[in-house]
Specification:
By secondary structure, this protein is an all-alpha fold. Helices cover 70% and strands 0% of the residues. The model has no long low-confidence stretch (mean pLDDT 96). Bound molecules: fe (ii) ion (FE2) (2 copies).
Amino acid sequence: MPAAKEYPPYVTYDVVGRRPSMLLQAYPRPTFNRDENYYPINALLSPHFASEDENRKFGAATFCAFLEDTVEVEHCLVIPAIVAMRRVPYVPPPEVEQDLYKIATDEGYHAEQAFHFLADLRGYFGLTMSDEHRAPLFLRRLDQQRAWEPDPVRRDLITVMNGVVTETRISIELGKFASDSYLGKSVRELCHSHAEDEQIHSSQFRALGRWLWESFDADMKAAAAKFMTDSTIARSIPDVARIARLVHQATGRSIRESRRLVYSLYNEEILLKDMLVAAQPTVSFFKHLGVGEYEAFEGALERETQRLAAELAAQRVECS
Ligand SMILES: [Fe+2]
Ligand SMILES: [Fe+2]
């Protein structure tokens, strides 16, 4: 099996002199004051809301969707990525494995903390699950990607790389929320403690991603480049159908009316632009590794643009 290259350095809690947030057992809770905002303003949709209250309720619904994603990402992407390392023929040094299991513990707490806030918001605003008891779109797409792969080792490597993809983007995203003064203090606190842990995770997953990539032979690099690129896009493309359901929940518009509004405002360029903002840290990291020499990111973007254009056109017809 591939001889391990020297494992890249990474940051741990001991190195930065902090403790994992799960040791604090802090559960920031919303206050529901009228000026407590839960999500940045949606510039596209905001002009179509009837009042500030509707705007704020849409923000609460969107943050609920974000927290639902957090629960799903922790349990269905990151923890499985760590466990899947047991099944691939690339064995990191023992202390690295031990540190990865520390991440798995953190993630369970992040999911619990998110779930707490989510339950409060749902109860107060009368919101329900944004995905109708299904896994979020990005998880469905990533599951499909795995299902198409016949080779079991590559299937497990997809699981590991999905962890790398998500863990290289999340600390930046949470950091933006934590420093956004438009958002309520409770939201910023929740995101801040999570972001601090994720800085450590990001460093560890970058080291893991780099080490795996450098251990791959040319064949494996070619296969991995394809699924790393596809995962990067799939993980961050906004789910338009879900946005329409959030509008429906927040405004009382019928679901058909909400879909008509959302599909008239969103197009493939906007979705790709939003995806690129969220995925930027992962895109830069993979570019730095040399993934683009095996799979052109621009080509994958072009394919996704065409797929989205066809899907949006079909949805517009359906709700017209
Ligand atoms: Fe987390
Ligand atoms: Fe994490």
